[in-house]
Amino acid sequence: MSKVIEGIKYADSHEWVKVEGNIGFIGISDYAQHSLGDIVYVDLPSEGDEISKGEEFGAVESVKAASDLYSPVSGTIIEINSALESEPELINQDAYENWIIKVELADPSELDSLLDAAAYEKICE
Amino acid sequence: MEELKLTCLHDKHVALGAKMSPFGGFDMPIEYSSIKEEHTAVREACGVFDVSHMGEIFVTGLDAEKFVNHIFTNDITGAPYGKIYYGIMCYPNGGSVDDLLVYAMGEGKYLLVVNASNIDKDHAWIVEQSKGYDVVIDNQSDYYGPVAVHGPKSEEVVERLLKLNVSDLAFYTFKEIEVDGETIIASRTGYTGEDGFELYGSHAYINKVWDALIASGEVLPCGLGCRDTLRFEVALPLYGHELSDDITPIEAGLGIFVKLDKEEFIGKNALAEQKALGLKKKIVGIELLDRAIPRAGYPIEVEGEEIGTVTTGYHCLSVDKSVCMALIDARFSALETPVEIRIRKKTFAGKVVKKKFYQKNYKK
Known about the structure:
The structure holds two protein chains of two kinds. By secondary structure, chain A is of the alpha+beta class. Chain A contains four helices and nine strands, in the order βββαβββββααβα. Chain A has helices at 30-36, 83-86, 90-93, 117-123; strands spanning 9-10, 15-20, 23-28, 39-43, 50-51, 56-62, 66-70, 75-80, 101-105. Chain A is globular and about 35 Å long. Chain B starts with 9 loop residues before the first helix and ends in an 11-residue tail after the last strand.
């Protein structure tokens, strides 16, 4: 059974965003890592890139398939999790602890259109 | 959408919690635990695969040898009982109908083992070509439910857990064994680059084999996910990727299975001409200098010009490198030729290498 945690927001494309101040940490859900299987590569964007909500910013690749990543929010990428370059399997180990990018939010009101834990759990059923 | 067929082990895959997905018209297990774990089990110990989606077509009759030689690129002339041949069935233009194994089952009797996705096409092709030959074509794909047991421990496991005497089988040979009132076929063949066996029997027998192996806890159930990573690493072709109606066995690098000195076979003239004139396109190996993964269909470029496409690619599990097989313009096929692979929005540098990324470990 996949884990859904409280206190963060989810996109129906299976990314999550955890907000601290005006910074959003973005990763993929436990359901997503489980569906993908062994993750062997994370295609990371560059720091400083501007992204819009719903825009593709990279990909997570398991042994058998590539899955695009879509940003749940708009903003500027201020940091990428470079540990994933050499240890992509960290996402399999804990999908919520291992964020992929940090974004400075351009429009915090976008968060309102995302799913809470209960609503996200329903779409994973 | 056509309804998916189920193998005789389908309930067991579901009960084991396998991720299921359509393949060749069947609902097949892709992975049970993880592709990496299953891959490693086959390289280091032992795994079992449900391969009952494969097709089994018998050719019997007075002209059987002559007919099989007519439709098959390898040469089965005078094949002794128990010997197995790998080869390709070609169209007159040299394109591939399918790749297959031919089991020599005694005078005038051959078993053709074909790819799941091609059973109906192959059967129709074989029947069509058989006009004028004294042969009977019998598609027994629904009777047999083969399983494959592979890995360095497979001989010991098959002997002890299944009570089958297989240690005397040489690579690419088989024997028929009486078990519980039926005749099963045990062959030392496979698609993983490791030692191992394929067992062909009734659905009841195959279920017994599966249960005994899984219950032992010594043999890991393995899905098609790792079957593909395993065969890929040792450069075994998959029909639809490295071979197709548009890719000849010569282009696929399978020339040693094409016996051009044979009197005749379908496609011979086209393949001989291709060999004489030189290839325009060719399957090669490519290694990336980055961890990005080249997937089937991604373009290969040289100086911005597309020169081919990836046919199969992975981050290779046994050697920790991103590598692929690709069909490219033969002018760029020399080893060490620099190429670029377009992956999503970026291009990554790579070079042409030998396509065998891992050494086979057969017991000969």
